[in-house]
From TrEMBL:
Catalytically driven reaction(s): guanosine(527) in 16S rRNA + S-adenosyl-L-methionine = N(7)-methylguanosine(527) in 16S rRNA + S-adenosyl-L-homocysteine
Keywords: Cytoplasm, Methyltransferase, rRNA processing, S-adenosyl-L-methionine, Transferase
Enzyme class name: transferase
InterPro entries found in the cross-reference section: rRNA_ssu_MeTfrase_G (IPR003682), SAM-dependent_MTases_sf (IPR029063)
Top-level taxon: Bacteria
Locations listed in the record: Cytoplasm
Keyword rRNA processing on entry: yes
Name used for this protein in its record: Ribosomal RNA small subunit methyltransferase G
Residue ranges the record marks as coiled coil: none
Signal peptide range: none
The EC number(s) this enzyme carries: 2.1.1.170
Length: 205
């Protein structure tokens, strides 16, 4: 099996397939993603989320903000299971979605845990991390503000944020409040979309 041109092992493929089955089952009663995107689960959500690990395939500690239906947090945790190292802390305040995330992690033997709390309170529960991810949560300025407790003053902590075609405007707005290094990774799944890699965060105002 291949995702975005990357060969995926049989074990990881089986975990991803089991996750997809669970997701479809739970999505019948819980609004995990926009209903219009359910038919494109593999391309729109699983393959898209897998790009995070493909960009940064290291056995590190992640914080996934606003994990929702598990994208990209559960997908990253599934890939980490093959490495047998690293961990994903999934932050999701909605208790029904948090219950789904716990079930998905447990049944796929993925390397992660769920924190059913507000993002603003999560740093106190989790502590430091090496990488942060978020997808369809907020604009870049908002994402950086959420991530600041982990990233400010931490040279080795970086954020990976999925963004759509309007990402240049979001970058310009964020630079009005923050200084940071930026790498733009073109999406292999969604045309005109990117994954923004943010590091060396400093506050301007």
């Amino acid at each position: 099996m291949e995702l975005n041109g990357l060969r995926v092992s049989r074990e990881t493929q089986e975990r991803l397939q089991h996750f997809a089955i669970l997701f479809q089952k739970w999505a019948k009663t819980i609004n995990l993603v926009a209903p219009s995107t359910l038919d494109a689960l593999w391309h729109r959500h699983i393959a898209d989320s897998s790009q995070i690990f493909q960009i940064y395939p290291r056995p590190v500690t992640w914080v996934d903000l606003g994990s929702g239906g598990g994208f990209p947090g559960v997908i990253t945790a599934i890939f980490l299971a093959e490495l047998q190292e690293g961990w994903v802390h999934l932050v999701e305040s909605n208790h029904k979605k948090a219950a789904f995330l716990r079930t998905a992690l447990r049944e796929t033997n993925a390397r992660g845990s769920v924190h059913a709390s507000r993002i603003e309170d999560a740093h106190g529960e989790i502590g430091d991390c090496d990488a942060i991810s978020a997808r369809a949560l907020a604009d870049l300025d908002g994402l950086i503000a959420y991530s600041a407790p982990w990233m400010l003053g931490k040279e080795n902590c970086r954020g990976f944020f999925h963004k759509g075609r309007d990402y240049l405007r979001e970058i310009a707005e964020a630079r009005g409040r923050w200084e940071f290094d930026l790498v733009e990774h073109k999406s292999a799944v969604e045309h005109e979309s990117v994954i923004l890699e943010v590091s060396n965060l400093r506050r301007l105002v």
